[in-house]
Write a structure and sequence with these properties.
This protein has 277 residues and is an alpha/beta fold. The strands form three sheets. Strands 10-9-8-13-11-12 form a six-stranded mixed beta sheet, with helices on both faces. It has a four-stranded parallel beta sheet with strand order 2-1-6-7, sandwiched between helices. The two termini are 35 Å apart. A hairpin with a 5-residue loop joins strand 9 and strand 10. Helix 2 crosses helix 3, helix 4 packs antiparallel against helix 5 and helix 8 crosses helix 9. Helix content is 39%, strand content 26%.
Amino acid sequence: MRKIKIVADSSANIQSLKQIDFASAPLKIMTDEREFTDDTALRVEEMVLFFDAYKGKSKTSCPGPADWLDAFGDADDIFCLTITSGLSGSYNAACIAKKMYESEHIGSRVFVIDTLSTGPEMELLIEKIEECITQNMSYEEICPLISSYQQKTGLIFMLESLKNFAANGRVSPAIARLTGLLGIRIVGKASDAGTLEPLSKCRGENASLKSICSHLQASGYQGGKIRIAHSQNLPAAIRLKNLIKESTPSADVAIRECRGLCSYYAEKGGLLVGFEI
C-alpha cells in the first residue's frame, strides 16, 4: 500500500491530523531582537505580546527546500499546501523540493498547491484532501478535485492593526497609523491573485463583524463550511459564529486559534474566515 501524506507550511495553523499522516513546515518571524519559529514549541501569546511592544522592523522567512524535504519524509503520494505565493516564497521552495524528491524517490508523487491564501482557507483544503483520502480516492482523482474545490473557497479577514504589515514593508506606515485610530478596522479578502484586498473600513467591532457577514453573502456563501481563526480574540470569533448561525442555521462553523505566522499578520484581535461557496 502506498504511503500518503499531507504537508503544509505553518500558515495553515495545523500541526497534526487525526486520520492522515501530516507534517508542518515552519515559517519564521524575525526581528533584530528575537526570532520565532512557528512550530509546536512556539508560545504564540508571548510572541503577540512581544510585537505589541516592539517598535523596530521585522520580517518573515519561509521554509526552504530542505525543510520541505524533511516534511515529506518517505511518503509515496504527498499533497503539499503553501501560503499564497503573493506573500511568500514558500510555494517556490516547495516546487524545488518536489523536483528533488521525485528524482530521488522514483515513483513518488508530490502535488504542490499554491493556495493563494492562508490560515482557515488552507484548513478547508486540507480537510477536503483528508476526506478524499479516507474515502479511498486515488491520487489521480484527488488532484483535479482539489483544484476544482479551491475555486469554491475564499478568505475574508478583519484586522485591528496593520503595524506588522508596515514593519514588514508591505504597507506604508501612514496607512498603518490610520488603522486603529478611533476604533477603525480593516475588512478585506484574499484576491484571486493571492493578494490581500481591502473591502471596507469599519468603526468598532460590531460593524466589522456585520461587514464580514455581508461580504460572505456577497461572495456567494449559502451554508457550507466556515472556519474562523482568531488572534487572541475568542469572544469576537464566537460572536461572529453566532451571527452566521442566526442568518444561516445550517452553517458548519468551527473556531481555531491562529498559530505564529497568522498571529503575526493578523495581530492581536484579528480574525481570518475561510468559507465554502
